[in-house]
Each structure stands twice: as C-alpha cells, then as structure tokens.
Amino acid sequence: MIEIIGHRGARGLEPENTMRSFKKALELGVDYIECDVHLTKDGHIVLIHDHTLDRTTNGTGYVNDYSFDEIRKLDAGKGEKIPTLQELIDLIYGKVKAHIELKDEKATEQVVQIVEKNNMIDQVFLTSGNTDTLRKVRNLNPLIAIEHIFGQPPENAIDMATSVGAKRVSCHINHLTTDFVKKAHENGLQVIAWPPNTLEEAKKALECGVDLLCTDRPDIVTKKALLSM
Question: Which pLDDT value is given to residue 1?
C-alpha cells in the first residue's frame, strides 16, 4: 500500500512547519510527517524550511543569526511559533513516523542525538540533498535510515544514494520518470514523489511505480481517494 507523507505538515492548508500544520496532517491520517531543521545562533534545533525567516515569518534575515528566544517571538503564520524538533516528536511519538530534512549540516549531530534520546531510531528517516550530510548521519549512527533528496535527479543519482547507504530517494513530480523508479527499485531503493497535490499528479506518480507520496494536500491525496481512482 502506498504511504502518504505530510509535506511540512499540511502546508497547503496551514502555515508550514508549525504545530498547527503538523496536527492537521495527523488529523488527515498521514503515515509520516516531514519537517525541516535549522540551528539557531545559540544552538537550538528549530523547524523552518528556508535559511532565512522572511518568507514564512514576520521576521527578516538568517535563522542562524537569531537566538532561540528571539526566534520564538516571531509569528510563523496564524499566530504560530516556530516549533522545536522535540515538540514535533512529542506530538507524533507512537502515532506516525517522521521525515526530518537536514537543511543545516551543522545540525546533524544534535538531530541524531535527539532521535536517539527519544528512542525514535526505527521511526524516522533523516533526509538531505547533500551527500556529505547523509554520510555524516551514517557515520554517527548507521541504524538510522536515510533518504537522498533530488529535485531533478542527475545521471548518477542512484549511485549517489547507494554510496551513502540510503534506503529511499525522492524526486520532484515534474522530473519523475518510470525509468528512474525502475532503476531505484533495482538497486533496493524506495522512491518518493513530491509534491503531488492533485489526484492527477498522484496518479502520474503511481503509474511510474513510486512507493510514497509527499504532499502539501493530505486532504486531497488520501489513501481512500487513491484506491478509488
């Protein structure tokens, strides 16, 4: 059965990477919640996609130029605060699994420690588009599953993923092909398509043979809807 990942929670419905968004994704029955991690100036792990605050908050400038206390004063949409990774884990533990994208390589060691401390090793995928970051995860704890993210996969994408021991690869829906999925499967990799936000896009991804769908709209791209197509 295909699995559904809530991209930054349910970012098509609520402010992305906020507790409100994660709760909505949970309500809609996703199998995984995806989030993005950055480090504050004083070394706290916070959940935000961009390196800068401008697009998703009422702040400006780089995330890592702000202390945790300063970050928490910002509005991330609808009055939401920028959450911590621990807050997300507390919400989802024992309910759904997590895809945690390492946006800042410097956050890698601390994220691994948080995963270990919370006994989440078998409940997470750590993800990145950076091979060196994934290799760092592998060296810190080879039991933690990793995923290599590609927008438009290069010719050697599968080799890049297998070289670091990835279990999954992800590909943007606009660049997804049956050949890419076939080659990934031949090399023991599962494939994620992101972000199919309509049933038409989801159907295209399923026809290519993907294993998971990472969507902004888990209210539209549901297992029930997919089964009825």
Answer: 87
pLDDT at 215: 99
User: Can you spell out the DSSP letters for 22-71?
Assistant: HHHHHHTT-SEEEEEEEE-TTS-EEE-SSSBSTTTSS--SBGGGS-HHHH
Structural domains counted in the chain = 1
One-letter amino acid of 26: L
Q: Which domain holds residue 137?
A: 3-14+25-36+94-228
Integer Cα distance of 50 and 37 in angstroms: 9
Active site residues: 7, 49
* Closest to 107 (Cα-Cα) out of 151, 137, 148, 81: 137
71 DSSP 8-state letter? H
**Report field, pTM of the whole predicted structure over 0.85:** yes
DSSP label of 167: S
For range 83-101, the mean pLDDT: 99
